[in-house]
Design brief:
The two termini are 36 Å apart. The strands form two sheets. The chain has a six-stranded mixed beta sheet, sandwiched between helices. The chain is α/β, with parallel strands linked by helices. It has one domain: 3-Layer(aba) Sandwich (Rossmann fold). The protein has eight helices and ten strands. It is globular and about 50 Å long. Strand 7, helix 6 and strand 8 form a beta-alpha-beta unit.
Length: 242
Amino acid sequence: MKSNPEIILKTQSLAKFVVLEGKQLDLLHHVDLTVARGETIAIVGSSGSGKTTLLSILAGLDLPSSGEVYLKSKALHQLNEEERSQVRADHVGFIFQQFLLINSLTALENVMLPAELAHNDDAKQLALALLAQVGLSERVNHFPSQLSGGEQQRVAIARAFITKPDILFADEPTGNLDKQTSKHIADLLFDLNKQYGTTLVLVTHDLTLAKLCQRQVEMRDGKLIDSPLLSEEVDTQAEKFV
């Protein structure tokens, strides 16, 4: 008899709005989402659909206007910024479209930083091992300005995994890369994710990348459509990606 999967992320009636010039602008409408430990899920949608807003709330970077969000059973909607920051430090990894590396630090130092903040005495060894895994052993002492876009994203991927997070949030991780580099980055991301058994929540407008996840959901006008996004368009793009 199969046991029920552990739920690592859950929202209930999640909503987000802002007031502009006296008018309420609804960004998210009553979003219900459940993610199991170890699952890979893609949130797709056009620009302005609300997917990045949703990711920010799921990761504890922002608070909802109403509704509930739980990460590792922590009620993020009830926590202050300091408390949410601690949850992120303990459980979360991030990969962003803009890489967000610290320009004054080398590749090695960028990867080491989260482990050092977690007081891990093996930070340097772990960082060197991860940089080797992403093919950057010869670039460890280079600064971000000395690296290509693909190399910077590989550093960012290594940095995201160094603390062995329970859940990884990736926001358009291939958005600034060409097709060939995007494929390489996607391969690295999913290989490491499988190796570490990490839960992956991926936000993308790229249906090819989304198809690599076990499940796809779509954001439309701030509403979540929790149904398989397996149209002929997705399947055709995925075939080209292989």
